[in-house]
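Thread: Modeling a multi-component assembly for a lab meeting

Hi all, long-time lurker, first post. My supervisor asked me to bring a structural picture of a complex we are working on to next week's group meeting, and I have zero experience with this. I have the sequence lines for every component (566 residues in total). Could someone generate the structure of the whole assembly? Inputs are pasted exactly as I received them:
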Amino acid sequence: MKHSHFWLAAAASVIIVFAASHFVSNDYFFFAGYVVLQYIVLAEAWNILGGYTGYINFGTSGFFAIGAYSSVVLHKLWGPPIPVLIVVGGVLAGAVGLAMGGLTLRLRGVFFAIGTLALAIVVQTFITNWDFVGGSRGVYIIRPPSAPLLGTYIHYLFLVMLALAGMSVAIARTIERSTLGYGFAAIRDDEQAAEAAGVPTLKLKLISTTLSGALMGMAGAPLPYYVTYLDPASGFNLSYAVNAIAMPLIGGTTNWIGPLIGAILLGTIQQAATVTISSSLNLLLVGVVLVFFVVVAPHGLIGLYRPRRKERIAQAERKVA
Amino acid sequence: MSDALLTVAGLGKRFGGFIALDGIDLEVRAGERVGLIGPNGSGKSTLVNCLSGILQNEDGSVRFDGTALDGLPAHRRTHLGLARSFQLPKPFGSLSVAENLRIPLLYTVDGRNGVRLTESDIAQRCEALLGMVALDGKARARPKDLTQIEMRKLELARAVAAAPKLLIADEAMAGLSHSEVDDIIALLLKLNEAGIAVILIEHIMRAVMSFSERLVVLVAGRKIADGLPQEVVNNPEVVRAYLGE
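Re: Modeling a multi-component assembly
Sure thing. I ran the full set together rather than chain by chain. Output:
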């Protein structure tokens, strides 16, 4: 499928899902759906750097919180509409991603991962000590009771996150099938060989950190309006970083569909567990599911499908021969 | 030599207190076949890494096709036409054999001299490269499913996909059988006939002697001989370096 056709299909899916959601009368569906969609954006964003390029990022919560707190600042200063907050959050988090890339991309493996974790801690410390955004006390954001044409505000937030999820999936898929995606794959597989094959690895790694960081910031930008009270403990919650890694690993990291499947699967299980058992069970659930997949399907769910597909192709080629 | 494609002058490289390369001078003409030999630890791979940009030399200079390479990253050197294969093959494991060849085509050949490649150009070039190394039946295979000789051929094909003027083949025949070595020699000769200069780093003397027009010998980071293969292997200093006193 051509890129333009995929983008149209993604836009159509967004419209269909949102239209179908009007048949749901319980508002909890929108609250839970928002979280699952937010994880789709985070998982696709993480996967651009971690899955496509092979650089493990433990600092998702830092980028996510940059988006969230940039919205807090703008809300207090001016109160622009959410699409503007998303753009600003994306630009800021993307800029931090670029800076982080410049500082840390000469590191590899676990050293890079620790660098990203350190970045998240630095940002959290800064926010915790910044009174304007509430510091460690946190800040209340009063969201409007309703949105024009859409009814309750949570419907609007759901639509915003649904559009962001559709966009992030389309971006991830476009990258994967592009020259950029081949360059990322080459870096992931062997950086020296990639350089020798003409791939400008440093430039591509900076593009990857910027794109990944920007999408994470965009996912975080509507958060203050969703939670209405934001403090560093929730904005920088460990669950964002853990889920952003676990979801692509469960689905499969080398393509766009893996993080999508992982986020829908794990996000939905977590939401179901939250209402039926306990919200504090979520991280334990992630751990159990992750261990299960590491043992049973180390290449994710997509990895289980691929050998069968390969066998079918081989059988077809044998028949032709 | 005034028509040198590659000119290395006084090249030096140290790792801490260890001198890996000490004042190496070397010239390679366009279309020439040069063999580079030396005992283990003599600095052959370090020299290749310095030429290809994986390592940066501390002393001396490298010029390629009229451009100073000092300080340039490896991908820029590949763009200029200096390609290499690795001693231990480094395929892109998550990509198919054909996709491995797409990478240099997309990043090096596409856009060179303002000429853009279409999808069908890329497919045709991949097909031609796979045909050249007799891997046309393996286009969709993953590198892990290839045999040792096929892996070596993929490594060379990926370097050649960058349309180089100079190919540095770093021990492309290591671990291969007699007939497989002949296959690789034939392939390198074919590439040379197409106008590509080749520096062959190799321990298999039969291959080096049958392939090279000129032979360069490194010992302990220094060049001790450079000349016609028969003269070089009879050089007493070379004999002493290889066989001892």
